[in-house]
Automatic annotation (TrEMBL):
Signal peptide residues on this chain, from the entry's feature table: none
Assigned keywords, A-Z: Phosphoprotein
BP GO terms, sorted: phosphorelay signal transduction system
UniProt entry tagged with the keyword Nucleotidyltransferase: no
Name listed for the protein in its UniProt record: Phytochrome-like protein cph2
Keyword Protein transport (UniProt): no
Domain EAL: 23-271
Full-sequence portion shown in this chain: 341 to 613 of 628
Organism from which the protein derives: Sphingomonas jeddahensis
């Protein structure tokens, strides 16, 4: 048994080593990804629940390294631990605002990591980018997670208030997966809650997920907020989300994330059938 334990410990060490190696490689290559032109933006439509009118697009970053694509779910957290996130984030925002100009009126919904959101003078930074691009603040939705705002709630509330005053839209992403206290939520100037895909996915299977989805929609409506359901893949989910009163939907059923050309076409079509 002792021997077995030692082997397990060694395997464990090796997998940690492997993880550290991968992490180092990603960090090293990611810092050159922009210069090497390996990054790309994709856009996924967000539609109104009743009409399927395309009201906006979420901007989702893609990185194709020499050896193939790497998921943002993997490299974003690594970038987030270093200053790389700022460089990446600057690129994402600039690109998104550029592509947005080709759409008739839709907004672009950009993900900002906690570290970006907490950076010194975030409000001034976003305003400057939007002014430089010649775009109305109403056409930029800022997606942040609970993690970004609940650590220093006081300061986050102030930042959100100022952003909202300037006309930006604010969506609280992955709602329900973090540690937001419902007590705090009313202090934040928000426009929408985004229900995490995990709950939508479980909705048809488990009573618990369905109950959570209903509660989030109910809460959002009671607070006068929009509620965006992400990861919608089936007609059945649409029917349930309609009945529950979600205001907006996003997911593969409507469209996968597409490149700038694809987004322009969808934006001009204006509706998804
Ligand atoms: P997220 O913000 O929750 O984005 C939604 C994710 O769900 C995206 O994954 C999207 O492609 C995927 N998705 C959308 N509809 C469906 C569906 O119907 N079914 C399934 N199975 N998946 C769907 P993606 O693009 O891999 O991004 C993963 C995460 O990486 C994002 O989660 C976000 O947290 C982060 N991320 C992506 N781009 C950026 C970025 O530019 N900046 C920052 N800070 N984070 C980003
Ligand atoms: Ca998001
Ligand atoms: Ca999300
Ligand atoms: Ca999510």
């Amino acid at each position: 048994a002792k021997r077995h334990g030692r082997n397990v410990a060694r395997l464990f060490d090796e997998s940690i080593d492997e993880e550290i190696r991968i992490r180092r490689r990603i960090e090293a290559n990611l810092s050159q990804a922009i210069a090497r032109d390996e990054l790309g933006m994709t856009f996924q439509p967000i539609v109104a629940n009743d009409t399927f009118e395309v009201v906006g697009f979420e901007a989702l970053l893609r990185w194709t390294e020499e050896s193939g694509p790497i998921s943002p779910g993997v490299f974003i957290p690594i970038a987030e631990e270093s200053n790389l996130i700022h460089e990446l984030g600057d690129w994402v925002l600039a690109k998104s605002l550029e592509v947005l100009k080709e759409w008739p009126g839709q907004y672009v919904s950009v993900n900002f990591s906690p570290r970006q959101f907490r950076r010194h003078n975030f409000v001034g930074y976003v305003m400057e980018q939007v002014l430089r691009a010649g775009i109305a603040p109403q056409r930029l939705q800022i997606e942040i997670t609970e993690t970004a705002i609940f650590d220093d709630a006081e300061r986050a509330a102030e930042t959100l208030y100022r952003l909202r005053q300037m006309g930006f839209r604010i969506a609280l992403d992955d709602f329900g997966t973090g540690y937001s206290s419902l007590y705090n939520i009313r202090k934040f100037a928000l426009d929408s809650l985004k229900i995490d895909r995990g709950f939508i996915e479980g909705m048809g299977r488990e009573r618990e997920s369905a109950a959570i989805v209903h509660s989030i929609i109910h809460l959002g409506r009671a607070l006068g907020l929009g509620v965006i359901a992400e990861g919608v893949e089936t007609e059945m989910q649409v029917a349930m989300l309609r009945a529950a009163g979600a205001s907006h939907l996003q997911g593969y059923l409507f469209s996968h994330p597409v490149n700038a050309d694809g987004a322009r076409a969808l934006a001009h079509a204006g509706i998804i059938h």
